[in-house]
Amino acid sequence: MKTLTVKKLLVPAILATLASGCADLQKSQSLLDAEKSYSQATSDANVLKYATPELNAANKTLMSAGIAKNEADMASLAYIANTQIETAVTKADAQQAHQNTQILMEEKEQLIISSVAAKKASAQSELATMQQRVVSMEENDAEQEILLAFGNIEFVTGTADLVPGAVVGIDLLAEYMTKYPTKTIGLSGHTDSSGKAELNMKLSQKRADFIRDVLVTKGIAAERITAIGYGQSQPTSSNTTRSGRQENRRIEIEFNN
Amino acid sequence: MITKKSTTPLIKVAALSTTISILTACGIAAPKTEIAYAEAALQSARNADLKGNAGVQLERAANKLQQAKSEMEDGDNTKALRLANETIADANLAQARAQAGIARSSESDMKKSLEMMKTQLK
């Protein structure tokens, strides 16, 4: 008599149980739809970039649904897979929105930086203009003061010697040229019509040269000063009156930049 | 004829079959852990939905959670487990919706702010 052994009974029992659990089940429409959604999601670069874990979870659920034992399980797993895919797509959208916000923030920051830089440049330019204006005003004031002082300058008649106290203008001019070291000046000597024209020409040159030499002794470079004598050739007043002749005996200064 | 010696293997086979049946979900334990997890996931999604972007998903998840609890009380643990797992998926989607809504809102605000700044700087 043949006896039943454990081995002989166990193997068919296991096979029967597993076979009943793995009977082929037609894929439901909801599962097919979920598989289609999954396929679409995996072709979306954003979803792949930002929601890979969610996609992997959906794939795992789809595989479980594919071997579901009954329709209810398959329907439930298909629903879950579909929801997981939707979650993946939604997360990818959120991440894309975050990324866009980041880019916009950077653009805004750049705009603020540019704006501040432009305002700073504008303010600096304005400040420089104002400073330049102040400097110009100061220069102008100094030049006016010098011209006024030179208007009163007097030489001993027939010589290039200054009368006592007439050095104020020259001192002011030396200070001015020291303060503005890029400035150059032109000195022009003039006389009245008394005496010979040739002598007057020489005398006017001598007087202009005298002032230039004084400035040089005060540390001003000679090449910054041009000294020319015009004699009696450029009168500004009539030589027939005493006051007119006095006005014609003069040293003129031209300030150059 | 089945002898005493031959019944022992039969009992063993029966026990094994029952175990396999349980493992293949013919009968499962009450899904308390899954329901608790679903409840926590739902609460987390509710907390994340500051701007009300995931109302539909939250409501769906809440209904399913309630059904899962009812099924468990009625002893249908298989159905309760399915519903608990669906609740977790719904709650996760609700949370993603909530976060996406906030992210899109921030993007929109930033766009407006940038445009306003560009207009002011013109």
Care to describe what's here?
The complex is a heterodimer of chains A (257) and B (122). By secondary structure, chain A is mostly helical. Chain A has helices spanning 6-21, 29-42, 45-50, 52-66, 71-151, 168-179, 197-217, 242-248, and strands spanning 184-190, 225-229, 250-256. Chain A folds into two domains: 25-131; 152-256, 60s Ribosomal Protein L30, Chain: A (2-Layer Sandwich). Chain A contains eight helices and three strands, in the order H-H-H-H-H-H-E-H-E-H-E. In chain A, strands 2-1-3 form a three-stranded mixed β-sheet. Chain B has one domain (30-121): Substrate Binding Domain Of Dnak, Chain:A, Domain 2. In chain B, helix 2 (32-48) runs antiparallel to helix 3 and helix 3 packs antiparallel against helix 4 (77-121). By secondary structure, chain B is mainly α. The interface between A and B is large, with 38 and 40 residues.
Strand-helix topology:
The complex is a heterodimer of chains A (257) and B (122).
Chain A (H helix, E strand, L loop, with lengths): L5 H16 L7 H14 L2 H6 L1 H15 L4 H81 L16 H12 L4 E7 L6 H21 L7 E5 L12 H7 L1 E7 L1
Helix pairs in contact in A: 2-4, 2-5, 4-5, 5-6
Chain B lengths: L3 H20 L8 H17 L6 H20 L2 H45 L1
Q: How do the SSEs of chain B run, as a string of H and E?
A: HHHH
Number of DSSP-assigned strands of chain A: 3
What is the helical fraction of chain A, as a range of percent?
Answer: 55-70%
Question: Structural class of the helix and strand makeup of chain A?
Answer: mainly alpha
Q: What is the beta-strand fraction of chain B?
A: under 5%
| Terminal residue distance of chain B | 103 Å
CATH fold-level label of chain B: Substrate Binding Domain Of Dnak, Chain:A, Domain 2
Q: Classify the secondary structure makeup of chain B into a structural class.
A: mainly alpha
Low-confidence stretches of chain A: 11-22
Helix content of chain B: over 70%
CATH architecture of chain B: Up-down Bundle
Q: State the largest interface.
A: A-B, 38 and 40 residues
The helix tally of chain B amounts to: 4
Placed side by side, the strands forming the largest sheet of chain A appear as 2-1-3
Write the element-wise H/E pattern of chain A from the N-terminal end onward: HHHHHHEHEHE
- Uncertain parts of chain B: 1-26
User: What would the principal axes of the Cα set say about the shape of chain B?
Assistant: rod-shaped
Main sheet summary of chain B = none
Mean pLDDT of chain B: 84
Number of helices of chain A: 8
Number of domains of chain A: 2
